[in-house]
Amino acid sequence: MAAKNKARTLIVRMISTAQTGFFYTTQRLRQGPRLSAVKYDPKVKQRVLFVESKKTKK
């Protein structure tokens, strides 16, 4: 029986550092560096830093 291949990409959750609970989901390469980006957070109505955390199952 052959082993399953792992996907090249991961789905990750980008969480706001303003601690509003707002997040974006995006994909990144499995071997790539952890993501961080400055994006718009509508709860505080300004651009804030978003950092990566693993996407959790619902």
CA radius of gyration = 14 Å
Order of helices and strands: EEEE
CATH hierarchy: architecture: Single Sheet
What fraction, in percent, of the residue positions are helical? under 10%
Major sheet characteristics:
4 strands, antiparallel
Shape: elongated
Number of helical segments with 4 or more residues: 0
What is the CATH C-level name? Mainly Beta
**Share in β-strands:** over 45%
Uncertain residue ranges: none
Tally the structural domains.
1
Structural class: mainly beta
- Report the end-to-end length measured between terminal Cα atoms: 31 Å
Strand order of the largest sheet: 2-1-4-3
Please tell me about this protein's structure.
- With about 60 residues, the protein is an all-beta fold.
- The protein has one domain: Rubrerythrin, domain 2.
- The protein has strands at about 10-15, 25-30, 35-40, 45-55.
- Strands 2-1-4-3 form a four-stranded antiparallel β-sheet, with no helix packed on it.
- Strand 3 (about 35-40) and strand 4 form a beta hairpin.
- It is elongated.
- One of its GO terms (biological process) is translation.
- Pfam families: Ribosomal_L33.
- One of its GO terms (cellular component) is ribosome.
Helix and strand topology:
Layout: E1 9-16, E2 23-29, E3 36-41, E4 46-54
Antiparallel strand pairs: 1-2, 1-4, 3-4
GO cellular component, one term: mitochondrion
Family: Belongs to the bacterial ribosomal protein bL33 family.
Protein name: Large ribosomal subunit protein bL33m
